[in-house]
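Appendix B: complex inputs.
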Amino acid sequence: MASVIAADNPGAAVLLMGNEAVARGAIEAGIGVASAYPGSPTSEILPAIADVSGERDIYVEWSTNEKVALEVAAASSFAGIRSLAVMKQNGLNVALDFLVNLNMTGIGEGGMVVFVSDDPGAMTSGNEQDSRMAAKWFDNPLLEPENAHEAKEMVAWAFEFSESVNLPVIVRGVTRLCYTRGNVVLGDLPAGMRKKARFSDVWDMYNPTKSKFTATPSPVAHRLLHEKFEKAREILENAPFNRYSGPDNPELLIIATGVSAAYSAEAVDVLHLKERVGLLKMGALWPLPKKTILQWLSRTKNVLFVEEMDAFMEGSVMELWAGAGLHDGGIRFHGKCSGHFPPCNEQGADLVIKALTDILKIEHQLIDADYKREAAEYMRLVPNRPINMCAGCPHRATYWAIKNAIALDGRNGFVCGDIGCYAMGFGPPGFFQARTMHAMGSGTGVANGFGHLGRFGFDQPVIALSGDSTFYHAALPALVNAVYNRSNFTLLILDNGATAMTGFQPHPGTGVLATGEPAPVVDMEALCRATGAEVMVCDPFNLTETTQAILTMMKKNAGVRVIIMRHLCQLVKVKRKIAPRYSMRVEPEKCIGESCGCDRLCTRVFGCPGLMWDSRAGKAMIDEAICVGCGLCADVCPAGAIRKEEVH
Amino acid sequence: MSGTKRGSRNLLEDVLKAGLCTGCGACVTGCPYMAIHEGRIVVLDRCTIEDGDCWRHCPRTPTDVSGFSEKTQGVPFDFLEPGAIIAVEMVRSVDAAVREKGQDGGVVTALLAFALDEGMIDSVVCSKKDAGGAPHGFVARTARELLECAGSSYEAAFTLEAFRKIPAGNADRLAVVGVGCQMEALAKMKAAAPVNGGNPQNVQLTVGLFCGWALRSDIFRPLLEEICDTSRIVKFDIPHSPGTSFDVYTKDAGKISIPLDDIRPAINPACQYCWDMTAEFADISAGSAGSSFHGWNTVITRTPRGAGLMKRAVAAGIIEIQPLPESRMTKLKASALNRKKNALRNLARKSGTREDLGYISGLPAGLVDALLKD
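Resulting structure:
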């Protein structure tokens, strides 16, 4: 079935996820190149484009990291072909060093959109961040859509905008936009031949100093950037994404960006405030459309800012107001500055309602007592389901081996964790073994540093973790650094054959492209060996051997040792229809449960979700619905009560 | 018997971290949270059981020593004597090959092989050295397997961990070979059978080994590795004369003598708190401990069961016996008592008071003061 993303049916309304709408917008704009590194909440955009890359003649790639993704996209724009780069907020940080130079040179003739999604509430992230701040500090245009349809429209529009100011344009999403489905009215698909890609800024012997794409000399480029920026501001004053609704002279003006505009509209509706409160919904944020904003500021005495994450508009508008000398007009500003919104976590209509009732002194029962009571009753029915690794997950095996190896070694060894499913190792799924965890590749980087502290009496063995995709993304430079600078630690690369946490995207080690076509395998083991590190490969499901291998490597206490923990992600096994290896059962008469000699090792400590504790019988059970027959728990059970039988 | 109920956390704090662990191996039996690694007991994870076998069976958790004597030996406990005694003799294996493989007279190996042979027992819980020479708990089921276990390792052997290698429900009649702390642990295991793993009720015979101290593998092993290929070591010995050298016999280099003082830093500090040189809770105890002549063991026959085995073994021509000279007997008793005084003194020093002797309880009032008065 042809993907709806590329349906040639202008005017049709289709239900699309925000991420799919972004993809459709880029396709309508006629992009030739899309690149990304997987990262929730943006991971679905590239695959949506990859699905139709053949029919739409688009080059797509999963890049090794976001900086590379951005560079790949930029080259396309340099050659006159529109490009899209996609990343989550952390990815923007990785890509920034290129981006802060890219806007100095400009993007050439092919429009370029960088879709970045923040993750308010850090639902799928280690951090919360407001990526809009980057646009402010390095002077880059930024738009923020309210819903799926607007995301599609905005992305398509952003390419023209990008070309008219010769700058990359950032479109900022949030998790709630990316993962919410909404009606999207399809536009026209580009027709006709795609133009030929050509890099025109080649050496001209008669004018050799002329160069568009080298970010020097910077003072000149910086001045030009600001000139372009003023042009961009003029365009945004009339952009179709900033709209006002409400009375001409509102008692209170809400300035809301992106999805917060929807929350605000809902709040105004619920409180029946349409006659009193105005809503300035902003989608074209940066450069700040000053005229538009000042026009509405002059008509009110109260302003409430509603936006996800930081006080981006709040601060910028207050700056503008102060700078414009309007402060004798006496506006009261509300938002994060007044404590009506917290400086962190996701916002919502409830918070806007609370703010409005407070500022306008309105009585409103947000949630009635019955509802509260009922909700509490239903909450009791919801099983407590803490985060966990899947049944059959090789990371659980690896962490089990790590835990035991560190305990046996007895020198207070510890793990520098990293980003991926195995980041859950800071909690029960990884037996609390991950003791540091920051950014992609940082486990290896931080371990580098620990490895040099021996001169100050540091005598603890250090284990760095890296996922396979993380290894190519950012751990490789840290590994090279470690070998070069003679650091001392053991790196475990958890090679589960996919970028699992974000949805099993392929990576350079998998032999598969973003389109599903075969690719050369960038041999992780050979790469590691080439650095000069000592390398071995283990299957973590061989628990005893793996524990011994980790112990042996820890003990060496000099140089960089790498163990590649190779075992396919269980969910990838399911996708590939790899049948369970074992059928599992518990022999209840052998299970000693809570008694001495077990103390529920399998369900209390090991914690595979495929195991259940029958508290009435005092026995462990296999949860047939969840167990995938990996067999690991049989090796962990001290009583031999969990039995595994090969499935033929 | 002590009534304290504790779990692995207490064991970790009050025994392992307190430097009292002798490496008997009892706590590891049937416990998935405990492991032996390079001569140490390691707690792998948090167990929430507050009444655990690990604590109950540990010879260094509070122990009513006189209560045990009544139970295991059938006689009241006399702290001033080296345990219950039916006879003390010099004994050796008639088979020279066993003597060669064993320590001194090779009596332990000979007696146990005989007990296996005559059907008194089906298997022997003992310790066996691995390829690198480190001892581990082992279950020997034949005389040949037993012979592979002969000879002293001088290291804490964790012998009792071998109970976990015996499947639950296995009805084999067992003999256990071990030093004093292991006999204490075994007595505790018999008094309250492990919930999971092991079947100490099937123990039909206990053979105690005299023990001066045990070495810590983590210090002793590297020391050995410096002087030889540890996989080629045949035997260790501390010859009575001059009594100041630790001899390592290897396949390649013959005898390598190390000054005993060089070995002393490897002695497990926990051994200073041990009162039991002659394994008083065994059926038969054997050793040398300065009381024997070269090539002979000093053997204390303690229980009727032990005496029966000795008698049958003599009759079968397996062992030969000669009386222990009075002067040697005096020396043996003095060493055993001296050990007890030292243990009490060290325990009192550790706690800061004679009122608190750590794990030892059940001693008659006034006895401690009398023993420690000099």
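The first strand of chain B starts at residue 34 and ends at 37.
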